[in-house]
Amino acid sequence: MNKTISDIAQMAGVAKSTVSRFLNGGSVSEDTRQKIERIIKQYNYVPNTFAQSLKAKKTSIIGTVVPRLDSFATSQTLIGIDEELRSNQYQMLIANTSQDMQREIDAIYDFARQKVSGIILLAAEVTEAHLKAVEDIRIPVLLVGQQHDQLHSLVHNDDQAGYEMGRYVVEQGHRKIVYMGVSEKDRAVGIYRKQGFQRAIAECGGCEVKYYETSFKMSEAIVTAEAILKEITPTIIVGATDNIALGVMKIAFSNKIRIPQDLSVTGFGGYDITEMIHPTLTTVKYHYLQAGKVAANHIIRLVKGESVEERTTLDVELIPRESVDKL
What we know:
By secondary structure, this protein is of the alpha/beta class. It has 12 helices and 12 strands. Helix 5 (72-87) links the parallel strand 1 (61-66) and strand 2. It is elongated and about 75 Å long. It starts with a helix and ends in an 8-residue tail after the last strand.
């Protein structure tokens, strides 16, 4: 059951007017403030009057929830969001959750209490808790990087990316293949990207493909790749991200495995570093900066009550480079 201001006041041992004063930015003692904040967070309380007050006085602030800041994809997307928001006289607030699911949910409620006009959510996974939070706050939310039929979504074409990479790999003559993916909790990378790749492999036939799971962290990809290369000898390793591919290249160099003569490697993402290393990395480029600009444009339209497509899909681009040998 949703809590009321009276409930919050009773649990905090203060007057209802004190809670109202706190919610409206008025002065309360530090001890009282901490009590009220703790209870509000515990019960994910959002004032019933929030939607009405927002309608009466809209802010020009958009909240953006990101799982991590040390990511090329995230940083480029944020730059695109910021540029587009600024050009439309909006400002961005960022909440970094460090890939903590509860912090992600808390950030949605926190932004609502700060009366942002809308929220852009870069989530690896959409749970019932996410959906409940979006329903509770009653302000526009745009999901970026994942898709869900209950939310406006902006996604990269992961299925097509996987398919194009799979087709390229077999066209280069590779038949003994390793695919290093990630958890299927991340549907975009863990499922759709892999499914596209599998579709291309199925069209070829005669391929021996082994699928492994690692994480987005390069350090963990290095450990996984080392174990794989001790067990089997593929002609190519396809990393589900550029970070994974870079981890593969790192362990290959450490073991004096030549790329691409002994082992070909590919990734997904199109990070800047992939065209600076030697050999340069074959990858599928994702247009993160463009995604940020489109996301900002869409959330502004939603805030203004204008119509936006339920799902927008951005194109990807295969970039063949030096890390793949033609057999």
